[in-house]
Amino acid sequence: RAHKEIDAMKKYLFAIIVSALCVITTDQNTFGANEGSTMTLRIKVGKEVLTATMLDSDASRDFVSMLPLTLHMKDYSGTEKISNLPRRMSTKDAPDGYDPSVGDITYYSPWGNLAIFYRDFGYAKGLIKLGSIDGGIEKLAGLHGDFEAVFELMD
Fold it and tell me: Can you give the pTM of this predicted structure?
């Protein structure tokens, strides 16, 4: 009788383990399906139109939730174009900092502003990558003085 109870217990434990593995695999596949999704922005500066691909992150989704948005951009240190945002953004699950590349669209959490890099820059604590300009960053780099930029989500 004890042998039958042990066999029944083994089958029961095996069923629980298989069920748990199925749940874990399903959760990972669901998460992985969202990793590849992208959001594309249109950025209008005067007669110029740029596109940008945004990351699938809490911070990027928070930025996109504010669109359409017209921002007053200005140059900062001959490296980036910056603008204040209407409100602070989510930094949930964001890294402590980031080393931006040319064309990166970022959020600088200590100041609460948007920064688009047109020159290389080193690591900055509190900098969060939101996405990247798809091409034409030299058009932004060539703008002198303050300007208006309209950010819109593309369909």
Answer: 0.76
